[in-house]
Task: structure prediction
Amino acid sequence: MLYPEINKARSIIDLGGEWNFRLSDENHDNGEADRAFIKAGTTMAVPASYNDLKEDPEYRSHCGWAYYHRVFTIPGIFATERIVLRFDAVTHYAKVYLNGTLIAEHKGGFLPFEIDITDKIRCGEEAELIVAVDNRINHSTLPMGNEEGTAFFGSDNADVPSVAAAKKWRKPVNLPNFDFFNYAGINRPVRIYTTPRSYIRDITITTDIRGSDGIVNYDTSCIGDGDVSVTIIDSEGKTVAGGKGASGKLTINNAKLWWPYPGDPYLYKAEVRFCDDLYILEFGIRTVEVRGIEFLINNKPFYFKGFGKHEDSAIHGRGFDFVLDMKDISMIHWMGANSFRTSHYPYAEEMYQLCDREGIVIIDETPAVGIGGTSEDIYSVGRFRSHHEDVIRDLIDRDKNHPSVVMWSMGNEPDVVSFPDSAYEYWHTLYSYTKALDPAKRPVTFVCNQNNYERDRITREMDVVCINRYYGWYNLSGDLKAAEYALNMELDFWEKLQKPVILTEYGADTLPGFHLSSPEMFSEEFQVLYYDTLNKEFDKRAFMIGEHPWNFADFNTIQGPMRADGNRKGLLTRDRRPKMAAHYFRKRWHDIPDFGYKK
Ligand code: E8X
Result:
């Protein structure tokens, strides 16, 4: 799906700003829009998560539908155009009503959907838009919610009569089986964009390198009768290649490649023309390949230095925040990092565009987090398979052209050990599905939690083994000598496989300003010692091709006995100030080359 752009053939109307808003009550619990009910509500910012924007605790704990309403008029001059209404992300389920008619439903809170409203609207006349949003999570949604009344943190199942009896006083709440706050609402921009009536529907670009030449394979999908032409322009505005036809192969002589920063993340532009339509797509020429124990970018072995991240900040919640994205990229450069994983859901497209331009490498993750948490086999009781396939398809469709994206992560920390046969069948077939969909055939993985790695048959089959490990924190808590031993014992296991391994999470909750002379958990000294102890061990192993501390910054999550003001494993505070460990990594990473580190 193409990102909306303004050029001489296309325009954009931004529907961000103030909308009318109301949380649903019992009479409005099925998503049916009721104009009078909503109008009697309050104001709300779009885009944003609604949870932290009002002081009534209902907003934070809400479980169910919420309604957004606004009126708008499309200028009469657009009457000859094709008109599309695009939502970049509505979390998690949306029903869209235009002038009282239901025009779309969409499941999944982190990917865009759009509706062609050309025949549903009159330019120059006022139109009314209502968006009903459901934030409920369960065994059919991704991320997954618990259905059994078990909380992610703490236990309500204790054999204590008074606790059991008190359950009837609990109001319905979301029970995330994951560790980030269930921020909801219209989290990303809402836009109307126009194209000519005959238009370019999609463009796919894959690239290759032949000697000093860059190969550009393009494929277009256009609606209407006409001819396609493609012109490739370099960063100085010079035409370097061109062709005609809906698809083709172009050669750029002496091509400049896309390299991660501090290399040159060089971008070309493909100007695609069809009838009166024009779309200008930026792309980079680079290759990605897993060979033996190496991860090659442009045929050179790359070392991943970076983070698991979140889209999370005070007040905005998970609402799109370009200013924050800008700051995060700057802090990534400051620490000498070169990559991150979009844990645990696809991020806003603007972040990928920034990474293309700023040379940051992305492991692109679906929202499949929390698959498990039941005593029964989740792969047979859950109802999420077809939705999982949908989000993988839509993720690849959205992000396939970004040079920054080098690998797909199908999900994070699913239970693959309790029910080995059904888990194997599930992930094995999903791997093939994902691989088949990507025109660039990027490596595919999923990220495994701390488990019995000997019984886990699936993680080892991924193109890159991605493991989250908490030796010294959740296990062997506070005992770094024992943690070092346990880590090495596990790494001996992985070494035999001769596959590349990335430590996609490891970390320790740390309170900024809490200092101890004798490092114990939660102190800044402990966080540094924890990382230094473990880093020294996998520095010795050639197959360890990356380290992603958890997390880039402190982030908000569900309240519970293990979380004081969120998850505090950030190297940065939630407002992006460095803890001691950020300075530690800054020094370490500036000394580690992006390429050829383990040679
Ligand atoms: C944590 C992280 C969590 O925030 C992330 O979303 C997934 C978790 C650790 C798994 N990985 O809790 O900080 C803990 C496994 C316990 C053995």
